Structures are given as C-alpha cells and as structure tokens.
Amino acid sequence: MSLPSSPHDYRGQTSETSRPSGYELSDELESTWNKILESSMANNKPLLPYEEWNIDFSELTVGTRVGIGFFGEVFRGIWNGTDVAIKVFLEQDLTAENMEDFCNEISILSRLRHPNVILFLGACTKPPRLSMVTEYMEMGSLFYLIHVSGQKKKLSWRKRLKMLRDICRGLMHIHRMKIIHRDVKSANCLVDKHWTVKICDFGLSRIITDSPMRDCSSAGTPEWMAPELIRNEPFTEKCDIFSLGVIMWELCTLNRPWEGVPPERVVYTVANEGSRLEIPEGPLGRLISECWAEPNERPSCEEILSRLVDIEYSMS
C-alpha cells in the first residue's frame, strides 16, 4: 500500500505561488541545520551532516497507518529492506520557526544512541512529505499495551519492573546527554516484540542549561505533567521524574491516570491544589510518592534504577 497522493488535502493546501518550492525549503532546512551544527547545542556529541540523514521520500514504501497524534500521522513502512516507522507531520507549510523546531528535534534525537531510546534513521525534508523515519516497534506504545490492547493480564510484576527499568535507563541516558524530554508519558514509550521499552517523541525536548529553564508554552500532556511545567515556572530535568512517577503508577495499578477527570480540571488541581493520584500500596508506592515531591527533592534516574533493582530482589 502506498501513501495517498495528498494525505493532507482536508487541511487545505497553500497555493504553489505562496510558498517556496520543495527544493528551496530543503535548501533552507540545510542552512538551518548547518547553523545548529555550528551552535553550542552540538558540543555534547558531533552531529551528522545534513546529507547523511536526509532521505528522499521515494526511497520509502509506506504501508498502513499505525497511529495519529497532534503533530502528525505514523505509518509502518519499509526503507532499504527494513521495517521502519514513518512520522508524517501534519504541518507541511514550514515557517522559519517550525523549520528550526524540526531541525532541533532531529538534532536531539540523532545524538541519542541507547537501547532504550528510539533509533533515529533519517528524515524527509521536502513538503508535502515532511517526515521523520525511526525504527519500528511491533507492540506499539506502553499506553496501548496497558489500556487498550487487552493484554495487561500478561504484565507480571517482574515484566512491569523490567519495563520501568528500561524507561529509567533511557531517561538516564537522555539526562546525561543534557536533554530534558518534557513529554514523558506511556504513549511516548514504545514496546518491541521482545517487550523492550524505548522512549520516543522529542518534539518538546530542550537542551539543559546551567540554570533552571523557563518556557512560555505549557508543554506536555496534563495527566503526566509536572506542576512546575503547568505553572510555566523554571524547570529542570526533574520535571521528567514527576512524569516517570505517573508511568510507575500506571504500571502499578494498570489504570489510566485521572480517568474520567477533564484535563482542565487535572491542570488546575495538580498545579494549584497539590492534588496527586492516590498512592498505591506495595513496593512502588513510596518511590512514586518521592517522584511527586518538590523538584529538588525528587530522586535522580540513577537512584530510581537502584531502588527498582532492590524492589525486584525483595520480590524474589
């Protein structure tokens, strides 16, 4: 199956005379990428030249749609004989700002190489095929696995703890690379056929600076967001730890966080009233509670990983 000739017709297309051609946009993207290469953002790890990750859309065989979100649609596909995931962005009319956002996401994801972080393979940079190509994860998201698939009975305590360790190791690597994810949630944790979990979707991520950061946009998903992000306060990588605590809660209870509560109510009560999900009984309860403490009191990924190992030993 091939991708429809114009998957975004329903959004209304801009006339050819009102926007640059695909070739001109690719030139602009390459120029933006070269600026990123020259910036301080590239200091943590050398980034690949533009031509080494730029993929022509004609090289892809696009199959069935496997997901859709706020930023785009995800298709299963084949590239160079390998199963891949192809994220086609809904916004194809590139402005200078979202062009830079696109390149920044690529710069962040391409510097991350870890067994528990989704593998970036390349990107297509010519509208209307602006897209990102990553490895394909057969079992979908952790959110789907727990709440939709009907397979949660297969999630033994040992398997759940292993999944949490996977997420923690991936997040630990992300933080060591001086990156804050800002949208850690079960829907952004993908599971392969071996039940290995990998963190994905770095569209809201930021490079860590020497002082707490501030962003005027409320980033993230309400049910998983740290209160300091909701309040647009300065934040550190500890905002990801709060979100990790919500995933722990999900895997502990196998319930949806804040089910039945409107998102705007979640935002208000978490940010202004200090509301938290009910702490479950059992070995993870205390650790979840610590993840939801004030930012400077939350444990690091290293501490959480050590605690998870201890919890598994205690259950043996």
Describe the structure.
- One of its GO terms (cellular component) is cytoplasm.
- One of its GO terms (molecular function) is protein serine/threonine kinase activity.
- ATP binds at residue 87.
- The protein has helices at residues 22-38, 50-53, 96-110, 142-147, 157-176, 227-230, 238-253, 263-272, 285-291, 301-315; strands spanning 60-68, 72-79, 82-89, 120-124, 131-135, 179-180, 189-191, 197-199, 206-207.
- It has two domains: 9-135, Phosphorylase Kinase, domain 1; 142-315, Transferase(Phosphotransferase) domain 1 (Transferase(Phosphotransferase), domain 1), CATH 1.10.510.
- It has ten helices and nine strands.
- The chain is an alpha+beta fold.
- The protein has a five-stranded antiparallel sheet, with helices on one face.
- It is globular.
- A hairpin with a 2-residue loop joins β2 (72-79) and β3 (82-89).
